Structure to design on (141 residues):
């Protein structure tokens, strides 16, 4: 996935820094916030700035390359936009994010659209609780 493909009229030319940020997001084994993306980026290119990271995340969102997720009250997290809808469970003890898919959500959305005058364009489901590892250890109240 290179940024200089024809995504929209707002397209900007690809730069090495943009490509680096996309590569880091693509290779991430989870969801990254802007500061973690920045931390990983400066390991590979010390000249990159935090403002550049934020600017490019905004651009990537506009181009539909990444999705922004608010998985806790304090941060936005980013991930490469996937082809299937998925949802998130977040452990309140360790912060682990677990992705899952559910046909029930699609059925619920279809039923809501059928029974109301509302066109759903996106469904967001965020479940909070404790992962098995934390549940088996000391449970935080």
């Amino acid at each position: 996935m290179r940024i200089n493909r024809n995504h929209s009229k707002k397209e900007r030319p690809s730069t090495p820094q943009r490509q680096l940020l996309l590569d880091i997001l693509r290779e991430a084994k989870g969801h990254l916030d802007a500061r973690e993306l920045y931390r990983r980026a400066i390991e590979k290119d010390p000249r990159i700035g935090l403002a550049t990271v934020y600017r490019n995340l905004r651009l990537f969102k506009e181009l539909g390359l990444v999705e922004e997720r608010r998985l806790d009250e304090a941060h936005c997290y980013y991930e490469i936009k996937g082809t299937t809808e998925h949802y998130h469970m977040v452990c309140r003890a360790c912060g682990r994010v677990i992705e899952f898919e559910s046909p029930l959500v699609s059925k619920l959305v279809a039923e809501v659209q059928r029974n109301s005058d509302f066109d759903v364009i996106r469904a967001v489901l965020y479940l909070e609780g404790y992962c098995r590892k934390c549940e088996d250890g000391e449970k935080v109240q």
